[in-house]
Amino acid sequence: MTVAMNFGDLYDYVDEQLSPETVVLIEEDESGTGRVFTAKEMRESTNNLASQLIAMGGSPGDKVAIYSKNRAEYVQALIAIFKARLVHVNVNFRYGPQELEYLLDNSDARFVIFESDYADHLDAIREQLPLVKNFIEICDDAKPAVDWAVALSELSNTGNGEKLAIERSPEDQIFLYTGGTTGMPKAAMWEQYSLWNMIGVNQKNPELASPQFPEELALRPKGGGANALVILPLMHGAGLYTVINALGYGNTCVLLRTHGFDADVALQCVDKHKIAAITIAGDAFAQPIITAIDAAKGSSSLASLRFVISSAMIFSPHNKKALLKHCPEIMIVDNMASSESSTSAQARSNKDSTLEDGAVKMQLTPNAKVFTKDLQEVQPGSGEPGFLAISGTLPLGYYKDEKKTAETFITVDGLRYSIPGDWVQLHADRSLTFLGRGNVCINSGGEKIYPDEIEATLKSHDLVDDCLVVGTPDEKWGQAVTAVVQLAADAQVEAEILRDYVRRFVAGYKVPKHVLYVDKVFRGANGKADYQATKALAEKELT
User: Fold this and answer.
1) Concatenated DSSP letters for 306-359?
2) Segments in 84-191 forming alpha helices (H)
3) Under a CB-based contact definition with an 8 Å cutoff, are residues 282 and 527 in contact?
4) Would you state the pLDDT for residue 102?
5) Nearest 5°: CA angle at 178, between 172 and 184?
6) For residue 155, which of 7, 24, 47, 27 has the smallest C-alpha distance?
7) Looking at residue 281, what is its pLDDT?
8) Structural domains of the chain sorted by starting position, each given as residue range(s) with its CATH number in brackets
9) pLDDT for 202
10) Hey, is 457 helix, strand or coil?
11) For 358, phi and psi rounded to 5 degrees?
């Protein structure tokens, strides 16, 4: 017998399995008080909200944008959207008016659920959003701050809390908007069964890729399992997947509601809730965690921590060493993944690993390959650069963007691949050196130079906390390699010393011609590099 896979059905099933008093969601903040939600509270509030969304005109497939930082109401809204057969649309809360208007219009959003802090931003563009019929405000008070919205709490408290009498489909979708390195945001369209095959059941059975799965693999959640700490923003895939997965298994989800990433609060939560695994985004999160551990001077035991999982960002060897020094029992899992695919490359490190300085090395996962521009498979050890491609469980494509879909999802020898754009070198042992995204490649004197390789090398220097590398105009070479560097606290190091250090690991033409220093490099809330802002700063400084 087989069981259909739909997130709304999944959470209905979990609701039935858990005892009402089981704690399923904890929201922690800087005050240390937090909010606690039981299975009964979450079941009733999400069922009520789902019913109200339908009563307000929501039909299967209608889009619901969530414009909020991490907080419990985001999770409630997410589950209610699934239960109502609507489509979740993530909104980057850092977007300016133009990007925000574009995303809400491009997604054909019918509902916008927003945090009170962003009411003014929405008010400025409401008239340009004729398709949006309902604005729902997440507010700390019982009533909304604006007269053009209804309070989310009012909707979630209205009703009998019973599950919806509704038939759902495995093909119901979830949108994951990604900004990429350039261009306007675009939505990866995931069918729910496909996404669960990637982040849920697929972890137990990698061969499974069907709208239905054997009944023996159906979940039997009892609650009280491994607590999950959500550090990354829910507006991005890694944070969102952590919540979907944890609640899908009936585990307790601990959510940080802080102004930006607060490493001290995160460490306190690890100890308080006995967190076994955390997911971060490379050095952008690892460095603050290490600094906080140093400052704590042993007051944070982190005894429960067993896994630190990093996704999509450079996690430099010296930061891995520092983390393993403090927490020798952990396993560090370094994943290369994207909004458009599962993990294409991975590295695992523990206290016995040899962590070399310089470029980060990963191994291809079984479904990943490296291709040249003309779609020839790169042979290990050939020295020829190529782009990563991953097959297996993939989204349908990008919403309303056939051109980008055709560019990102290709078919080679009858097999469909996703190519997010990462360029690599494949070594004889099938390990990888990441070179960067093709659209940020630097062309200096005809030589192609990829930022990731230089960034990883610079960040292996003890005095460098973070850096980004861009190409700036150069009369002689066309573009000059320019490093924008964030040094460790109170550190000082001359540019020539950093250049000499890089020269030890890479070819001379890759050594930065210019080294600029900043207090903080440009990164988004999820740790992703903002090369456009970095390039603009560098060009201004060098003018």
Assistant:
1) -EEEEESS---HHHHHHHHHH-TT-EEEEEEEETTEEEEEEEEE-TT----SSS
2) 97-106, 119-123, 152-156
3) yes
4) 92
5) 120
6) 47
7) 85
8) 2-260 (3.40.50.12780), 361-440 (2.30.38.10), 441-543 (3.30.300.30)
9) 47
10) helix
11) 95, -150
Question: What does the DSSP 8-state code read for residue 164?
Answer: P
CB 3 within 8 A of CB 197: no
Residue 389 identity: A
Whether 482 and 514 have beta carbons less than 8 Å apart is answered as: yes
**Cβ(64)–Cβ(210) under 8 Å?**
no
Question: Which residues, at least 6 apart from 170, have a Cβ–Cβ distance to it below 8 Å?
Answer: 4, 5, 6, 191, 192, 193, 211, 212
pLDDT given at position 201? 58
Report, as ranges of residue numbers, the positions in the chain whose pLDDT lies below 50. 1, 180-182, 202-209, 214, 216-218, 358-359
Burial class (CB in 10 A: 0-12, 13-18, 19+), 126: middle
| CA max distance for the chain | 72
Bridge partners for 74 per DSSP: none
Closest CA to 526 of 308, 283, 204: 283
Whether the CA torsion 49, 54, 57, 62 is positive or negative: it is: positive
pTM of the model: 0.83
DSSP reduced 3-state for 60: coil
Chain length of the chain = 543
β partners of residue 529: 523
**DSSP-assigned letters across all residues of 390-446:** E-SS---EETT-HHHHHHHEEEETTEEEE---EEEEE-TTSEEEEEEEGGG-EEETT
Residue 46 per-residue DSSP state:
H
Residue 167: other Cβ atoms inside 10 A = 11
User: What tens digit of pLDDT does each residue of 519-536 get?
Assistant: 999 987 767 788 889 999
CA distance 387 to 432: 11
Q: Give the contacts of 160 (CB within 8 A, at least 6 positions apart).
A: 48
How high is the pLDDT of residue 543? Answer: 87
Task: Retrieve residue 319's tokens.
Answer: 């930061």
Phi, psi of 391 (to 5 degrees): -105, -170
- The predicted structure's pLDDT at residue 181: 43
How large is the C-alpha radius of gyration of the chain?
23
How far apart (Å, rounded) are the C-alpha atoms in residues 229 and 393? 26
The span from the CA of 192 to the CA of 203, in Å, is: 15
